[in-house]
Specification:
Structural class: alpha/beta
Number of helices: 3
Strand content: 5-15%
Largest sheet: 3 strands, parallel
Order of helices and strands: EHEEHH
Length: about 100
């Protein structure tokens, strides 16, 4: 804020603890945009920019199916285990559903 920022993008890991800092920024006329995760309360930020991971997985699966010209996709053992990132897990799961 002291450097003249007009906006900040945040990816809150603690959706409540970040709110006082967001309020401070907004009081200084700095726009606050949350990325992929809502704050608590939700109206603490000016906007939310998030992806639809289900739709992304389906779109990737449809693209892969078309690109493979009917050949079945091969699953590696790693593709069936849940990765650390839930978003990636959703995309992988929905990819397999759409590419089948």
């Amino acid at each position: 804020m002291t450097t003249g920022a007009k906006a900040i993008l945040i990816t809150p890991s603690d959706t409540k603890a970040i709110v006082p800092s967001i309020k401070k920024a907004r009081a200084a006329d700095v726009m606050a945009v949350a990325l992929d995760t809502l704050t608590d309360p939700q109206d603490a930020t000016d906007a939310l920019f998030a992806t639809d991971n289900f739709k992304a997985g389906v779109m990737i699966g449809k693209y892969a199916k078309a690109a493979m010209n009917g050949k079945p996709a091969k699953r590696s053992p790693r593709s069936t285990s849940r990765p650390a990132c839930p978003s990636a897990y959703c995309i992988i799961t929905d990819f397999w559903k759409a590419s089948a």
